[in-house]
Amino acid sequence: MTNADRPLRPEGDVSALPTVVFGSRSLMWWGTLGFMTIEGWSIALLLVAYFYLRQNFVDYPPARTPFPSLLVPTINLGIMLLSFVPAVLVARAAKRLDTAAVKLWLLPFSALGLAILVLRWWELWALNIRWDTNAYGSAAWVLVGFHASLLLLDVGDTIGLTTFFWTRPLPPKALSDAADNSFYWYFTVGIWIPLYLILYLGPRIF
Amino acid sequence: MRASPRSRRFIVAGGLATSLLLATACEREQRRFADAPPSSAPSAFTTASALQPGPTYIASAVADPYESNAYAASTGQQLFASMNCSGCHSNGGGGMGPALMDDNWIYGSDPDQVFASIAEGRPNGMPAWKYRLNNQQIWELVTYVRSLSGLIPKGARPSRSDHMVVASPPSQTPNSKPKNSGVPPASKAP
Amino acid sequence: MSAEHSGEHDALIPAPQPPLPARATLPDDLLASEHEHLDALWSDGRGFWAWVTTVNHKSIAKRYIVTAFLMFIAGGLEAGAMRLQLSHPDAGVMGPDRYNQIFTTHGTTMMFLFAVPMMTAMGLYFVPLLVGARNVAFPRLNAFGYWCYLVGVVFLYVSLALNMAPDAGWFSYVPLSGPQYSPGHRIDVWAQLVTFTEIAGLIGAINIIATTFKLRAPGMSLNRIPIFVWSELVVSFMIVFALPAVALGSTFMLGMDRTVSTQFFNPAEGGDALLWQHIFWFFGHPEVYIIFLPGMGMITEIVEVFSRRRVFGYTAIVLANITTGFFAFGLWVHHMFATPIPELGQSLFTAASMVIAIPTAVQIFCWIATLWTGRPRFTTALLFILGFFFTFINGGITGVMLASVAFDKQVHDTFFVVAHLHYVLLGGAVTPLFAAFYFWFPKVTGRMLSERLGKWNFWLFIIGVNVTFFPMHLLGLDGMPRRVYTYLRETGWGPLNALVSAGAVIIVTSVIVFLVNVAISYRRGALAGDNPWGSYGLEWATASPPANYNFLYPVVVRSRHPLWETAVELPVLTGLSTERREVLVTTTVDARPDHRHDDPTASIWPLALALCMAVLWIGSIFSPYVVLWALLISTPVLIMWSRQAMRVTTTERVQRPNGEMVEMAQA
Amino acid sequence: MSNPVLLALQNVRHSATAPASPEAHAIAHLFWWMLAVGGAIWLLVAATAIRSAFARRGAPGDDGLMRVSAETHTRLQRVVIGATVVTGVILMSFIVFDFSVGRALAAFPAQSLTVDVTGHQWWWQIEYEDPNPSLSVTTANEIHVPVGEPVQFKLASHDVIHSFWVPNMNGKRDLIPGYRSSIWFRADTPGVYRGQCAEFCGLQHAHMAFLVVAQPRAEFTRWLLQQRTSGATPVDSLAVAGQQVFMSGSCALCHTIGGTPAHGTVGPDLTHLASRLELAAGTAPNTRGYLGGWILNPQSMKPRTLMPPNPLQPRQLQALLAYLETLK
Q: Are D199 and D142 in the same domain?
């Protein structure tokens, strides 16, 4: 029995408040934001290492290392940008509480995600250097690899969500989750754009 | 705090479980600095030359005491460098002397055979090290040399060193099935 | 001061349903039945299964605290072993191989397995109570964090038992910790262990941030947050930005250099030994403040309560916390003054390292001002705070001295630094921690700790700390380097070392007294009641120990010191569901009631996932391919984890971004 | 025999607070000043804090809480702000003082004797550069410097990180693989000073000391000339036998003795071993007994040192010792 010594005076009633909300009002959004911060910051730190190691080389990539190939990475970047479309549509539909549309757009979303993951493998080899050749190779591989782990996480999340939506009745908060999933995807793809420029185009430019 | 006795119990339980998993680690992590006073007496089973009494070489059952000991392997690596083995075997790649990282073992790949090759020396230039190194050191060299072609447990093999990359480190060399274990016919001798 | 009392938020709170006569209070029989109901609803049950599945922040934080304290004891025993070996010249208690493992384990334990987890754990237990929440924001994540941490603990100590413990120092400088100079798996253990505990730390931080931002009691606007919560908030942000550095450095650089031959730290292939030092200290220095700021928060709470007055300079103290948090990231190079780094850069870091003393000084001045104009009650808690002034300031002064490049180059890596860091950490973190134990133990267990034993605990601790660590200053100046497993008689370091070792015995005695005190008081201590200290915080507005649900109803807060400034009656909000675990989510800045959130129930999946991660991290030491297997087995676990939340229960009130409210049962 | 090292070592306090060079003097000065000011602050604040706990000002309100009048509050504000400003000023003075000392230490002398120091696990290789390579001198764990002349040390390491530190002379400097660094000092008091590795460098970090022998120019020159000579050729039969043992055994593989076939580079140069004060990087004084023990089983004196045990017959050992003692 609590507050024996202090009588409680009701000053209001919260039963009229909503139980499912979207965006920055929901706890899940804050959790997502937190992990985005950590992952984004990690990539920033790895980039610092990438440039710090550059001091030890006359040219970067080092002499006799071919430039990274552009074909696969560019295609994959294209797919990533394309994937924004279903991601945005899913988020919109979710906020409209339009489950059918969410289910529909989750399919291309997952498909593109998978394609990106598969291409990521060749994207690694497109660096044209092994991770154990020298520090440049290590830094580049770890950057692309680390981002790959984010992709894996996010694509996995998307596919899981898709399966849920297609297989079983879901509570309304699933819609909020779908919106947050897109939110996370914006980040994962968004942060790749600078990485693509630095790791694949960068060597050719400077 | 209610959880305390239980969490202690949990830690103990987890500890036991994990120790079962890691029990193998003990041997690998041992670090012997000086074994029982080493004698420079040549080992009983070593052979002085390719000429054998009888047709084939009889492998003795002596095993490498450091077979799965990471520290011994890396000490062997250190000796390999400081005794200038690379002068002839260039980082195991082979040069004046035979390559050590391939699957071709002229005088056999068993620990005792390699020990013999190092301690007694071999024809065509391999000096006898038994007067220079003590048994422990020779065994450490044996461990390292065998790691070069993946003949010792993966966990014990040296990883990359802080030098220019010349070859993939033993920790990444695939195990290779050794060929011609024993003493070659005189015709094939190098 | 005026904003503190304004009722500006009342208008934002929905009117009672049905309307109640003014100043009516809830009848006791209603409270009783509600209590029965909610306590059952929020209970995760008893017994082993309940123990491994619970998501209650109090249970988890409690075992967090207990485990971390066990680690404090373990680290202390290692310190004892080292002091035994160093107590006289050329001692033969242990050889260098064992000694290196032990001092590395000591540092690693104290920093990664005791200090940070302990401070996070205190936050995970008290932040929800201090802000009037029923649980942390992400209960299952919270459980997962603890299990990760526990795996790390077990991993390190099993390795120690297997003669496989890391032996390159808690800082694992390359190339010594690299593949060539540390063969075997000892350093891999360190690298993965660090990542483990960092994950636990990051999860704790996110939980504390989200809890502080979204689950505060209605009306507890940012300018009314208790200062301990402020410091935990600042620290959580620091964790988010500091810990990734070491996690990446250890797993993705050091670990990969060792296992898959990346070349990050191989100078012959463009790698760089200093890169590791930059990465490590970019985490390592903020780490010190991550350990120390929560202590500062605890001190403010305790000073405030026991000097019987509102703390002087709330805003100044909060700003000081935040400033410290920012500056802490600009000092790391002062750990590298002896390395070839441009001189100008060093001077800048000198300046920063000295300037950071100012915010700390401000807090100390504010506390003194508070005590001066207050009416202090000499409880053990307050005694420890006075002990803090005595010891910590000593460490602070030597810290300022060490910020000087010229002087640092003399005593860097000597026992002078050992003395400094122990004065700072024992004085600045452990002393407040003991104070906090005496202050909050009644809330956690419902019983008071014995004040008489407390006094013994205090005096032994303060004397022990000074006898142990003061002589180390002199040893350092006389040229005794750190991390030596023995020293020659000719060096003349013998007598002082003997004294130091004697001091260590006193500290051990003090800790034993504390343990006895806890053991006795836990069973036979005086009953505490809701608010034994006559304190002001929301944590004292509920039972001791708090019921499973923490608060029967969300408490309405109108000031910084709710219990000091409300009349007898406590204003609350009704209307949270009693059918499921609902928590009230409020707005970030002024804590207006925003929506009702359905909290998850007990779950085994956090533990399962932690075990999968254990397979991943530990297995990857032995073979990179284990990672794939671990991912494979963790997939079903992740699915089950999210399935649990994907159940159709009741009709939800969904509010679309455009404000439209829709009743719907399923998506 | 009374051991010269111990005597020499006991003559000086090996402490940063017993400076024997202008550089160490400057640092010690800075230290004492900061200590005085800092100590005063510590006593003052701690005392005030404890005093404040006994303060009894005014009576609590009926709710048992203390209330502070507006003017008291403003007075407190003034005091706290004042104290903060004072703190800031003191810190600034520290920064300025430190910066000035730092400049002085960083000003490398234009003309100076240059010594190359290479850190190994776990000993120090010392080389005195000379334009004429044949005149350059290589020794180990013992640095001789002329009093009153600046000496610059070029530091390098090829295995792990070490740190070069002579408390009586100057601060420390790290030897980091892949980096070149240097430090200098000017000994102004003759004597034997102890230095050691200050960065944890593995199992024998504890036994990686060295000696700095500061001597008048004349003595120093004599020492240097003597070090340039090649190893003594043994005359009496025992020593000759000893040389045999050295050359045929494993010794010659790792050690160099000038003027002999021994050209190993793994261990320290032994050309003038007998002239050194200590053995095995400050592990033991250089006496016949310790040397014998060291040769037979170094691992017992310094576990994991690179030098292996050498199971010599007593006669061999005596001969070897006789030979090594000729290497003045």
A: yes
